[in-house]
Design brief:
With 253 residues, this protein is mainly beta. It contains one helix and 21 strands.
Length: 253
């Protein structure tokens, strides 16, 4: 199993959910079969069989596996708000292969899956004005107003904000000195006039990045934002994109 990064990398998660869809009511159709990763060997918790080698079938998969997600057109995923210890639990993945023909598409009699990222990744690079000197310590970096829960249609490759009455303020992961990351689905915090980002210093003083226009953010893309913290305000420079896939946003103040 791999993730559809550029380049792709092996998916090392503990499990995934797989749908084999020959059509409603077909004996060989299987919904949300959990496959478990045992040191790189994938094993299903219940048996799944091909009808035959020539009959086309629609294949859908996602990760991590969710109990009760038995409709491939409506898979719900809750995005964790605490990502301080890492972003992996927020990285929801999907795969679809309509019209799969086992005789043509299996590799050494095995089903290969290459996942794509559903959500958006943001990396924030913090720098500090001269007025701080060397005495600055960041307590928390918070990505505000993101979606708390999404609904995914694996067949049509669409994602919707499931609960617009509730929003996530995500505590980002400090990956190295001055660098913070989070995985999310955009919400009201990425709209014009919103305080998208809050930098909380060790003395509990907070500095905010306020947007002067909507951010166009797309699932499967990783964005980089350079943020300079001053005594009285925070300035956001260019917002660029690193792989997952590339996209660039305009300059922010």
């Amino acid at each position: 199993m791999t993730k559809a990064d550029l380049p792709s990398s092996e998916y090392t998660g503990s499990d995934l959910g797989l749908f084999i869809d020959y059509g409603d009511g077909d004996y060989y159709s299987k919904d949300n079969v959990r496959w478990v990763n045992n040191s790189g060997t994938w094993t299903p918790e219940s048996q799944a069989l091909w009808k035959n080698s020539q009959s086309p079938v629609d294949i859908f998969a996602y990760a991590p596996h969710i109990i009760g997600a038995d409709d491939h057109t409506s898979v719900d995923f809750s995005i964790p708000s605490n990502q301080v210890k890492g972003t992996s639990t927020a990285d929801f993945l999907w795969y679809s292969k309509p019209g799969f023909v086992p005789a043509n598409d299996l590799s050494d009699q095995k089903l290969n899956i290459t996942f794509s990222h559903v959500l958006v990744k943001l990396k924030v690079n913090l720098t500090f004005g001269n007025e701080f000197g060397d005495s600055h310590s960041v307590k928390d970096v918070i990505l505000n107003g993101t979606s708390s829960k999404i609904k995914c249609d694996l067949a049509n490759r669409t994602v919707a904000d499931l609960d617009q009455s509730s929003f996530n303020d995500i505590s980002m992961c400090n990956t190295k000195d001055g660098v913070y990351e989070a995985i999310f689905f955009p919400g009201k915090g990425q709209k014009s006039g919103s305080r998208m980002l809050t930098v909380v210093m060790s003395d509990n003083k907070a500095y905010n990045v306020t947007l002067d226009g909507d951010l166009e953010l797309y699932g499967g893309y990783a964005y980089t934002m350079n943020v300079k913290v001053g005594k009285d305000r925070v300035l956001a420079g260019n917002v660029n994109v690193i792989e997952w896939a590339e996209k660039e946003l305009g300059e922010k103040d």
